[in-house]
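Notes continue from the previous slide.

Worked example: a multi-chain complex. Inputs as given:
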Amino acid sequence: MSVLVILEQQGGVWHKMSWEALAAGVELARGLGRPVAAAVAGADLDSLAAELAGYRVERVLSVDHPLLAEYSPDGFTAALGQMIRARQPFLVVLPHTYQVREFAPKLAASLDRALVPDVVGCRVEGGEAVFVRQLFQGKMNADVAVAGEPPYFVSVQAGAFRADRLERGSAPAPVEKPAIALEAAEIRTRPLERFQEAKRTVDLAAAEIIVAVGRGIKEPENIPLAEKLAQALGGELGASRPICDNGWLPMERQIGSSGQTVSPKLYVAVGISGAIQHLVGMKGSRTVVAINKDANAPIFEVADYGIVGNLFEVVPALTEEVLKARG
Amino acid sequence: MEREVLETDVLIVGAGPAGLACAIRLAELTKNPDGITVIEKGREVGAHLLSGAVMDPRGIRELFPSEPIPALDTPVGREGVYFFTRGGQWKFPVEPPPLRNHGNYVVSLNRLARWLNERLEALGVQVFTGTAAMECLMEGGRVAGVRTDDKGRDREGKAKANFQPGADIRAKVTIFAEGVRGSVAKQLIARQRLDAESNPATYAVGVKEIWEIRPGRLDPGTVYHTMGYPLASDQYGGGWIYGLPGNLVSLGLVAGLDYRDPRFDPHNAFQQYKLHPFVRGILEGGKLIKYGAKAVPEGGWFAMPRLWSDGALLAGDTGGFLNGLRLKGIHLAIKSGMLAAETAREALEARDFSAARLARFGDKVNASWIREELWKVRNGHQAFEHGLWPAFFHLGAQMLTGGRGVRDRYPSEAGHARLLRLAELPAEEPVKIAADGKLTFDKVTDVYHSSTHHEEDQPTHLVIADTDICNTRCAAEYGNPCRFFCPAAVYEMEETRAGRRLKLNPSNCVHCKTCDIMDPYQIITWVAPEGGGGPSYEGM
């Protein structure tokens, strides 16, 4: 019984969270001493399946059917359900994408099995997989172990596992095409035209360095101060809620419980007091630098380096030093 | 714009104890679940419900006479009523009769609602959650249903890519069980003058936290009520501390929204309350789990609006079904919902949805134990008009005269009208507690513990008729009390180059309705934000 990772693609393009799910699957398989298999569902998957076979996996399952060309919860549940019934994996790992959020509960329920959604970590304890889920908007972590019969289903949160450590296999893994019986009548929904809710010009979740500004910046005219520091560091500009709320920066740059959750290598908080709503959006950052004039600001509780001082003096000086150091 | 139109027999607005009990009773009576539609603005049933709560089981036992009710798992055990002074307390030798709770149960209203929802689903009725009622559909003076919220509008009200217009739900009878100060019922009450013969509605606000405490500090079922500190003797209200299973404590402070000092801050008073040695002794070493706030209709019998209109009924807190002296409303909400269901069912059979027919709801209420209970305390809240000490006299007199007291109907005025202007007050400001992050918290941290979420890019749901009044007149006359009475830091006065101006943080709103009630100029109108937004209460 293997660990089966189901990757997501759309129109022949991989969803990048797929690789994080594969990384999670590989890690779990190693701990459990089980082989790892990778699956993908859709239509005309030959080239994608071949690409997948290049990774170090035991086998690739290409769930290929013309009726899966367009994603539908009914179609994917039926097809993947048949494949899982036939293959009897021990554990099924999925990326916690919008699509997975829609069909995975249905898929798990149709097999009468448990689903642990949106996990941020995992480990193996006494031969058993233990998953970590966030509770109370990230304030607490809970360890979850699954009771009952395998296969267990688990979906992994964006950014929780590192895809850059995936290893390629020495020889391509075998690709199998499980037989899928699917009737058009089984699919009760018909997708309409696709649309993009809002154009994003910045992807803070992927940024390695973020300089974030808060209320301490006082006026919108002062934002370039922080922007220059971000540029000098080669990072992105983020903000706490009041800044975006005032329309000083677009909402896509908002970090916190009502904005983006980020975990860069370096997070520089400029004039941010550190309300808990902001902290939950950035506390996963590897190194936090806080600049604030109030020594009692809660941001200093999560900061690795703190500068108590006037940001209008500190930030330009810092920018200058960074530029000097970079030559 | 094309709107979806749904037709139903009976539409119930709000899935709280009144709305759910109404739907359950109606489904039992009509055996036609398809004719019942229930909408709820919360993301899930129970998400916006908050109560103390000690429940009188009378209502729920009538709804389910022959089955075990899982919510009734924590009977009231030890009881005590205390009077708090700044640093101490004394215990009432006997509990005042309205506060005797033997035979009642400590409950979580969320959990109760979730169970009621399961029962309702078993009868074939599915609540439409995340769906807010925005306005009445009126047809020739009669209520013909409601229009629900548009989804996907940006701050300026323009349609975003995911825009979806609200639906028109058309019903033969619409039952408003929206909770306290229901935003659509408010429109209807004003338009049809349903409160023409009522006392002005009066309210309180309850600020609540749930704590996990060290084992052994408070047994489950323990029920303490407190009067006095930190409230001034001319203020209505008091505190509660209830022991829950699992080393949890529900505690909170209720403050009448008819206080005099515009600088009074209920959230701040609650922080003071937690620092009182009696409370601190229970909480210390524990941790905050949840936070919430909600207004309470305190006006009593004479403040209830007319409960029926052409095509509409008002139930639960929306109708003012609450016994302020007993601090209880859940049992009355359930019973009012059941009676509304019976009224609606008879109207369906007679195919008559006129006000004359629906007036039978009033008859049913009058013939039930609701009136018996509320009539006895009809002047209860008004007894506090001149503060706590005169109240003891009036309450004593009322108790001896079946609720009458010294006159048939004590007068009352709207709470916001009692606010004094800054010029009439001593310059000394009320004590402001600095949050220590252990026992006391600032509003923003507490809001975090209410798990409140709103779509940020949507029109503000706090509609202020004229912000100039806030920035100039109110600043001078009352010092912007919105900053203080809002328990969720929605209102701020921000220093800008153009001077002090009002800044709203609508996404902090925990839907307590205090601003709509207490603003001295009555220029704040609370309308429902995009459905699904708001707190996510659990175990509250």
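Summary box: The first strand of chain B starts at residue 5 and ends at 13. Residues 419 and 467 of chain B are 20 Å apart (CA to CA).
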